[in-house]
Amino acid sequence: MSRYLTLAVTLGIVLPLDQGSKFLASSLLSPYETCPVIKGFFNLTLIFNKGALFGMGGGVPLSWLFVPVSVIALAFIFFYLRSAHQNETLALSLIFSGALGNLIDRLARGAVVDFLDFHLAGYHWPAFNLADVAITVGVGLFILSLLSRRRR
Predict the structure, then answer these.
(1) If DSSP codes are grouped into helix, strand and coil, which group holds residue 107?
(2) Is 18 in the active site?
């Protein structure tokens, strides 16, 4: 499969799931409302995140920089895909899809919709969304790809 076809298929899966789940969360929950799904472990909690991945940098007065930085990152990934190693294609496509999903939120709402809220053994992970999952999995796959190429 060509690199750009992989990107198109990944976008066609990740973007509707991400945007659809954010629409549902925004429609069914009020801001900061918590709906327990698995008591003490998993909640749905609607958050409007002005920061970065997993809420990092939300209080930064330069949070308006996330939009141009996202656009530059998307352009870089799009053009880098042409020469990327085949093993990096899915990873970069996941990162691209997640970044685009969160960019759409920033442009449409001024913040990213986060709603997946996990707790484990007294630890609370910051709320996140499916775009964040795509970015995180993509980064993990990209690192694995780089490490496997390095061993050869």
Answers:
(1) helix
(2) no
Residue 6 and residue 90 in contact, taking contact as beta carbons nearer than 8 Å: yes
The catalytic position among 18, 105, 117, 132 is: 132
The average pLDDT across 12-34 equals: 97
pTM: predicted TM-score of the whole model, two decimal places: 0.90
Catalytic member of 18, 105, 114, 117:
114
CA–CA separation, 118 vs 130, rounded Å? 14
d(CA 74, CA 93): 10
Residue extents of the structural domains in the chain: 3-151
Q: Is 132 a catalytic residue?
A: yes
Whole-angstrom Cα distance, residue 40 to residue 16? Answer: 29
pLDDT in tens, 56-72: 655 555 567 888 999 99
Write the DSSP string, 2-27. -HHHHHHHHHHHHHHHHHHHHHHHHH
